[in-house]
Amino acid sequence: MATFKLQSAMEYLMTYGWALLIISIVIVALVSIGIFNGSPLGTTCIASPGFTCAIQTFSQANGNLTVTLGQDSGTPWSTANVVFVNASQESTVQSSGLTSALLSNNANNLISGLASGTTTTISLPVLAPGQAHVGQGISGYIWVQYTTGSSSGAVTQAQLASVTAKAT
Fold first, then answer.
1. pTM for the complete prediction?
2. Among 3, 71, 73, 123, which residue's CB has the most CB atoms within a 10 Å radius?
3. CA separation for the pair 135, 42 (Å, rounded)
């Protein structure tokens, strides 16, 4: 009779032991992706159709977002100026396009020649150096103004990707 009580006790402990182990693993996973700290979840770059985007880093030291961008439009770009637009400025850009002031502040983000199906890595200024701190989240959009064909080709503006990142 005592063996049945011991077996029952062991089954009880094993069942609840496995349940506690699984719950612990889930909690550790949620904490590690930052679900409990109130800032954006991790780092994402969701590209618009015809574009590719992958975030490399968001540096708290210099406030720059380093991304790998690409296009697959079937037409090579002669030149492209890439700009990060904060989420709060997006409605202005949607209604009036990229302004000359925004483009001139990001003059170093000029890409010369990008063939269809290729990618390039670029560093975009997001915050002034020293303004970001580790774990700080940003959200916004990457816009591109590009020309196709010869230097006299048409100028096109497009929202390339939606971005959420945390400074490291």
1. 0.67
2. 71
3. 9
Find the length of the chain. Answer: 168
Q: Which two tokens stand for residue 13?
A: 């402990």
Answer yes or no: are the C-beta atoms of 53 and 84 closer than 8 Å: no
Measured CA angle at 61 (ends 43, 145), to 5 deg = 60
**Both tokens assigned to 114:** 């990008």
Of 165, 160, 103, 102, the closest CA to residue 134 belongs to: 165
- All residues at 6 or more sequence positions from 20 whose CB lies less than 8 Å from its CB, including other chains: none
- Given the candidates 2.20.130, 3.40.50, 1.10.287, 2.40.50, the CATH classification of the domain at 44-166 is 2.20.130
From first to last of its 168 residues, what are the pLDDT tens digits of the chain? 566 788 888 898 899 999 999 999 999 988 877 676 654 456 788 888 888 888 888 877 888 888 888 888 888 888 888 888 887 777 777 666 666 656 655 556 777 778 888 888 888 888 777 777 777 788 888 888 888 876 566 788 888 888 888 877
d(CA 81, CA 65): 15
Q: How far apart are CA 82 and CA 161, in angstroms?
A: 11
